[in-house]
Specification:
The protein is 25% helix and 31% strand. It has 254 residues and is α+β, with helices and mostly antiparallel strands.
Length: 254
Amino acid sequence: MTDNARPGRVGYRDIANDLRQQIDSGELPPGSRVPGENDLVSRYGVEQPTARRALDELKNEGLIVAKRGSGTFVREFKPIRRVSPDRLQASTSWGSGQAIWSTDIGTRPRTEGVTVDMEVPPTHVSEVLNLDDGARVVTRRRRYVVDDKPVQLATSYYPEVLVAGSAITEIDTGEGGAYARLRELGYEPTKFREELRSRMPRDTERKALDLAQGTPVILIVRTAYTADGQPVEVNEMVLDSAAYVLEYKFTAHN
């Protein structure tokens, strides 16, 4: 197409398809610079709005990212592998004083903006935790950063009646985190349920995670239960989808 391109004969989808093929084939590898608008105008014989629309299409697909003052580049994907249920095994993570994150990346990420509040939770959280009307929760909000890149937002809700006065109400919950503290309080989480869905980020999430144009998020809602089925935590996590691979392991028999 490039050699035969004539004004009026090449559309933005044609240009986007060409660039997409180069990315998929490795001709444009991750991290490489993508031809800019002026380059595409010259190469394909099109007007600048057509070139811009082609690049926008690939940005919206999450294939390329624009870096202010530097140009546009093929997105680099260096995934954090989130392995469930391994990360929730008490014997190898929180129960042995390790962070759950150690199962994912081997090291603890930087935690930013931790806040702890006492509040009446949203209705859907109250229902999951089986709370009476007006009952409060301890709410912990934070952002996780890996290699100086925000990758996850998390909000955890704990029934106030269970955790009041414990380290769960402090900024630093100590070794093993909140699950270790729940065990000390007699509410050890032994069963977990996770729901996942993907969606486009809200504006506040996009800014907090510094998301590139067209990047969706993964919403994971985890509920932790004691052995007798009492819900003790709801954790709502918003993940940068470009930063994660979600891996699940199952056996064929219970």
